[in-house]
Design goal:
Elements lengths: L6 E2 L6 E2 L1 H8 L2 H19 L6 H4 L17 H12 L18 H7 L2 H5 L9 H6 L12 H25 L15 H7 L4 H7 L5
Antiparallel strand pairs: 1-2
């Protein structure tokens, strides 16, 4: 058996992984097989008696989490990514309510997340991640009034909750006006449907 050392990129000295590049240029049949295998592995993990907490909180299928692609402030995205990855909360911290450990479960209960998002307390995987999993995968070409109505209520509340979680876990942090902005305006502006009145102004009759 002959050992072939990994190729090294001269400028940075890192191993070159051709397999990652080859996947994108592989035949469709190969890509389908890879996706099918990954889906099978994911399904088997979900079927375990006690699947991983963080994985169980995400959508139960392969794909890119919309929190990585939807338009939002860098602060909102950072908090959501850290929440999904288990970095927020990170190391054990005392909660501002006096509880010695501000865990994920405690924060969801202490901050009344279910009530504020108007979902049942026993919603699975938990009230916050349930709502995050309802995010649209992309901005629709013509956002509906129903979609905007839902997220104009949910999104600012989520941004506020995530700010509070960060403030509890990082009480020494300093928050600028931009960092403390929980309006969710960037996403909501993209989801806002064009009103009939606005449309009529855009198409005015010729004199």
């Amino acid at each position: 058996m002959i050992f072939h050392p990994p190729l090294v990129h001269v400028s940075v000295g890192r191993p070159y992984r051709p397999d990652k590049i080859n996947y994108l240029s592989s035949p469709a049949s190969v890509r389908r097989t890879v996706v099918a295998y990954r889906t099978q592995v994911l399904t088997s993990i979900y079927r375990k008696p006690k699947p991983p907490v963080l994985l169980s909180a995400c959508r139960p299928y392969l794909g890119i989490d919309p929190i990585l692609t939807l338009p939002m402030s860098t602060y909102d995205r950072s908090r959501l990514v850290r929440w999904r990855m288990g970095w927020l909360p990170g190391r054990p911290k005392a909660c501002r309510c006096g509880h010695t450990h501000a865990s994920r479960a405690h924060l969801l209960n202490c901050l009344r997340v279910a009530t504020r998002l108007d979902v049942a307390t026993n919603t699975r995987p938990n009230p916050l991640d349930y709502v995050l999993n309802q995010l649209p995968r992309k901005i629709p070409p013509t956002p509906s009034s129903l979609l905007f109505s839902r997220w104009s209520s949910w999104w600012p509340t989520i941004c506020q909750i995530m700010l509070e979680i960060e403030q509890i876990c990082k009480p020494e942090g300093e928050y600028t006006t931009e960092a403390a902005d929980v309006s969710g305006k960037i996403l909501l502006d993209k989801l806002r449907p064009v009103s009939t009145a606005s449309s009529s102004l855009l198409i005015s009759p010729l004199d």
